[in-house]
């Protein structure tokens, strides 16, 4: 388990092994906020232990979206006494409807209990508190964290967390690899990134869902690259309507992600 990196006062990220998930931590005087809990009880136990090295405060959890590597660790935090799990309403619905199916996506060598649904800590613990269209302010004691939704992007339920110094973006922003398009809305994602960029004057740091903290230029480049890919794909579809996949070799993503990109672009057009 990597060590915590402090971004702003009382704002930390922890890059965990494997998926290199960034778990966020925001400290108040009365309670602390944990952002994303990992892909199962083993990873979550490491995250919780790291949290407890920083603070003994009661915890609140936010799941930024409904992909297993961000919420399958909830049961470990519930066992530590957490009762307040926040997510966007769309993400909560997806977790309830498709959470069990996501067990198949796990590496059973790393999370055998979660993959096999073996034991209480392998239960899927769903959000207990929902964010809809309006931001929610969480008072942690002298520190306020704002939970807010800018629109569809990586999924239809990407929740962001903002503090006085930092915005935690979940997988709306990823550093070190191409964006993941499996459940995405590519055209809307580019617009959502631009909305995020427009808010960057409020924050000094941006913590992505995976990878190192990034600048506003990174977010703008990600949005522009996605818009360019959309334009290229649509032009290819007009030129070869029966085989729009011919655009894949020229898209600015790797072949596998480009295939997902094309599939989602057609589905969400």
TrEMBL record:
Pfam families: Lactamase_B (PF00753)
Location of the Metallo-beta-lactamase domain: 20-210
Domain of life: Bacteria
Protein's name according to its UniProt entry: Glyoxylase-like metal-dependent hydrolase (Beta-lactamase superfamily II)
Lineage: Bacteria, Bacillati, Actinomycetota, Actinomycetes, Micrococcales
């Amino acid at each position: 388990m990597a060590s915590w990196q402090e971004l702003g006062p009382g704002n930390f990220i922890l890059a965990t092994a494997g998926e290199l998930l960034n778990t966020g931590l925001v400290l108040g005087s009365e309670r602390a906020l944990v952002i994303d809990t990992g892909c199962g009880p083993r990873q979550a136990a490491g995250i919780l232990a790291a949290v407890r090295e920083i603070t003994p405060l009661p915890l609140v959890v936010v799941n930024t979206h409904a992909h297993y590597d961000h919420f399958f660790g909830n049961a470990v935090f519930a066992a530590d006494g957490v009762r307040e799990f926040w997510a966007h309403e769309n993400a909560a619905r997806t977790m309830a409807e498709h959470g069990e199916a996501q067990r198949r996506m796990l590496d059973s060598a790393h999370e055998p209990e979660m993959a096999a649904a073996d034991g209480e800590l392998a239960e899927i613990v769903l959000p207990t508190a929902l964010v809809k269209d309006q931001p929610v302010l969480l008072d942690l004691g002298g520190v306020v964290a704002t939970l807010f939704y800018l629109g569809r992007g990586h999924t239809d339920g990407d929740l962001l967390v903002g503090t006085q110094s930092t915005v935690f973006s979940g997988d709306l922003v990823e550093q070190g690899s191409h964006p993941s398009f499996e459940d995405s809305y590519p055209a809307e994602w580019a617009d959502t990134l631009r909305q995020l960029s427009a808010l960057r004057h409020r924050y000094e740091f941006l913590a992505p869902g995976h990878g190192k903290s990034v600048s506003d230029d990174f977010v703008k480049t990600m949005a522009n690259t996605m818009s360019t890919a959309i334009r290229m794909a649509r032009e290819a579809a007009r030129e070869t309507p029966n085989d729009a996949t011919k655009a894949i070799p020229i898209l600015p993503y790797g072949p596998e992600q480009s295939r997902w990109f094309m599939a989602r672009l057609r589905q969400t057009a």
